[in-house]
Specification:
Length: 179
């Protein structure tokens, strides 16, 4: 939504260029950039649902792939359409920023978004590394948790707080990891 305000508009790289430049000038050689399909025009439910499902609408799937490819191309340091002054390639891209109550798409929707981004990114730059979004398992996984108690721990939090604290189940997180 911030980089491409309307369908068909060119991508405005001002903020991402500033981010990459600032960190590279400070000596960082490895960055992670988080990409979301969050926009008022292309997301499944950007306006109605709170929190918002930012998965791309099916009719904007191709634009999502082009967006991901364009961003990855901008920072791959191959000399083609690169950010001016790029010192090293950006290799790591997190798709989404959190798989949690703040980003409530289903595991299936997220896996689809992740898959589209993975292919588009690798078509743009073979050396790219695509990361799944972080899992927010607030209060479900604690220092007392063990793999044997995970299911019970998740169920207890879901029963006590509902989706206010824990939108996604342990099964949802496992689907993504298994994918």
């Amino acid at each position: 939504g911030d980089l491409q305000k309307k369908s068909g508009e060119p991508i405005n790289f001002l903020e991402t260029d500033r981010y990459v430049k600032e960190y590279q000038e400070a000596g960082f050689t490895s960055l992670t950039m988080a990409l979301q399909s969050k926009s008022d025009w292309a997301s499944v439910d950007a306006k109605g649902l709170k929190p918002k499902n930012s998965s791309p609408k099916p009719e904007f799937a191709e634009q999502w792939k082009k967006f991901v490819a364009a961003v990855v191309e901008r920072y791959d340091m191959d000399g083609n359409d690169d950010m001016p002054g790029l010192k090293s390639p950006v290799v790591y891209y997190e798709i989404g920023t959190e798989f949690s109550s703040y980003v409530p798409e289903s595991a299936e929707e997220y896996i689809n978004t992740l898959g589209m981004a993975y292919k588009a990114a690798h078509d743009a730059f073979g050396g790219v590394k695509i990361l799944h979004a972080a899992f927010l398992t607030t209060t479900a996984i604690t220092s007392a948790s063990t793999p044997e108690t995970y299911e019970k721990d998740f169920a207890a939090v879901k029963e006590k707080y509902g989706t206010r604290i824990l939108w996604h189940s342990l099964e949802d997180n496992r689907k993504i990891l298994d994918h």
